[in-house]
Amino acid sequence: MRGTRMDNVSPERPHADLLDDVRNLQITYSRLRPGAGTCFVEHVGSRIEVYEVDRFLIEQMIEHLVHGEA
Question: CA 39 to CA 51: how far, in whole Å?
Answer without folding.
Answer: 5
